Amino acid sequence: MARILVAEDERDIRELINFTLLFAGHTVTLAANGAEAVEKVTDANPELIMMDVRMPRMTGYEACKAIKEMEAYKNIPVVFLTAKGQDEEVQNGIEVGATAYIIKPFSPDELTRKIGDILKKASADQQKTTGEKPAS
């Protein structure tokens, strides 16, 4: 499965996401804020990044922008987690490089399904650009 970096400042939500993704077979690296996510991205080498929008030290937008400026991670899908899905907020996320939004609250099954769909799309997109065949 995939390596996923999760940045969420609310411990209960962070642990729920961690448990859900581990149960689905993913490898998870946790960060408590945006700045920590930027610090951990190199060691985590994620295939997908999930970030809360509103976090201390560095917002999800700021962290996404910083990660997208790193050559090795500019094409990694970033999914924002938010309690608010207003058009302006979604547009801000897209502008800094977000792939998708997941609105809180969400069920573990919904999270697993959406992450699976995003990973499949990212893999297909990479195959188109690099000409690689899918891993079996």
Tell me briefly what this model is.
With 136 residues, this protein is α/β, with parallel strands linked by helices. It contains 5 helices and 5 strands.
Strand content: 15-25%
Q: How would you classify the helix and strand content by structural class?
A: alpha/beta
Q: Which overall shape is indicated by the principal axes computed on the Cα atoms?
A: globular
The unreliable regions are none
Structural notes for this entry:
- The protein has 136 residues and is an alpha/beta fold.
- It has a single domain (3-130), classed as 3-Layer(aba) Sandwich (Rossmann fold).
- It has five helices and five strands, in the order βαβαβαβαβα.
- The protein has helices at residues 11-23, 34-44, 60-68, 87-96, 108-130; strands at residues 3-7, 27-31, 48-52, 78-82, 100-103.
- Strands 2-1-3-4-5 form a five-stranded parallel β-sheet, with helices on both faces.
- β3, α3 (60-68) and β4 (78-82) form a beta-alpha-beta unit.
- α1 (11-23) packs across α5 and α2 runs parallel beside α3 (60-68).
- The radius of gyration is 14 Å and the shape is globular.
- 32% of the residues are buried.
List keywords for this structure.
alpha/beta; 5 helices; globular; single chain
